[in-house]
Amino acid sequence: MPLHIHCKKLQKRFHLRMHTLPNSHPMRAMFPHIFPCGKHTPHTCFTTEREKAMSSIPLTKVFTDGKPLTTDEYSPLHLECMLGDRVVDLYKDRITTHLEHPPKKEHKQLDEWICTDLQPRIQHMHDNLSAMVIFTDGSAIYNEHNGNLGRAAAYRAYHDRRLVRAHAIYTGYTFSYDCKLRALSMSIHYGYTKSGVHQLHLFSDNKSALQSICNTKGGLDTNIAACSTLRERFLGHSQNHLHLHYCLSHSGIAENEAVDHVVRHHVYHPDDLQHIGCLFLKSYLFVHSAITEHALAAWQEAADKRSSEYWRCKYFKHPAFCRLRHTGPFWSRRRGGPALGEDFCEAIGNARVIS
């Protein structure tokens, strides 16, 4: 990637990362025109108070309109984020995870696990009157029919084998992971509201979301809200317990198929959903990925404008590299192996940077 495009990408990621820092962080204090200063904010203002925005000082142009890149809220100094005092630290014996399953490639073992483990486990939960069973899902799909992006999070709650609540929301510009995380958070808020319920069983087809929903290390408000609710419920009754279950998608589990159908419907019909906050929600992960996509698009545009000059003079001309991409393990998969990669890197190093 040309150096000037790569630097712009890093600069935008730096801007994005600043929105996840605590309010009193010195880095935020350097940009008072973006972040309001609190009483604990150190006086480390950058040149923006004395210098006009100029290209020679790129950071003076940071967010001149004051608009944040992401609508995700971060509170890394929240009480729920304090090590040793988090929910996972104090109540780890009351949070149980059931994430083990055979490899997805082993279809025979997987089918046997579903029939002998997962399905009987779900039936046993339904028979327990003190248990609330909630299946969650979230999805972010590109609609090829009309070019719209649809994203939704939903859950369906069961008690005594009856559906007691079904809820879905629009999640804005997010990834599937963000949608599934929000669905789990909503489920925790609802799970203990019914009288007599002490065992909350949450199902999701995303193992990473299940593992991180109670992790407040980053200070994401979705996780903080879920953990605050859990702390309140655990303090309210000594028998309250949370169970997190992994359920393979499209595995024939009726409850899981039902919530998946709801999410898919709302992804393609977003107007039917309840919108939370502003219409244009943007998650941190979505914006982080978009920054890379924009950099690649700028790279591609530079190559298309002067295609012959770009590939013959500026970069090593070889069919393996005529498609723009990041390096990664790319070299070992192409003809020529590491030696070809070394030649390419040398050609890049000796080439002039395209302005």
Beta fraction: 5-15%
Shape: globular
Mean pLDDT: 79
Assembly context of the chains: single chain
Helix percent band? 40-55%
Structural class: alpha/beta
Helix tally equals: 12
Q: Which stretches are poorly predicted, pLDDT < 50 over at least 5 residues? A: 351-355
Instruction: Give the tally of β-strands.
Output: 7
Main sheet makeup: 7 strands, mixed
Q: State the strand order across the main sheet.
A: 1-6-5-2-3-4-7
Order of helices and strands: HHHEHEEEHEHHEHEHHHH
Radius of gyration: 25 Å
- C-alpha end-to-end distance: 12 Å
Task: Walk me through the structure.
The structure is a single chain. With 355 residues, this protein is an alpha/beta fold. Helix content is 41%, strand content 14%. It is built from twelve helices and seven strands. The protein has a seven-stranded mixed sheet. A hairpin with a 6-residue loop joins strand 2 and strand 3. Helix 1 (3-18) runs antiparallel to helix 9 and helix 5 packs parallel to helix 7. The protein starts with a helix and ends in a 5-residue tail after the last helix. The relative contact order is 0.14. Mean pLDDT is 79; it is low at 351-355.
Write a concise synopsis of the structure shown:
The chain has twelve helices and seven strands. The protein is of the alpha/beta class and 355 residues long. It has helices at 3-18, 26-29, 87-90, 107-127, 176-191, 207-212, 221-236, 254-268, 284-305, 307-314, 330-333, 337-350; strands spanning 95-98, 131-142, 149-159, 162-170, 199-204, 241-246, 274-275.
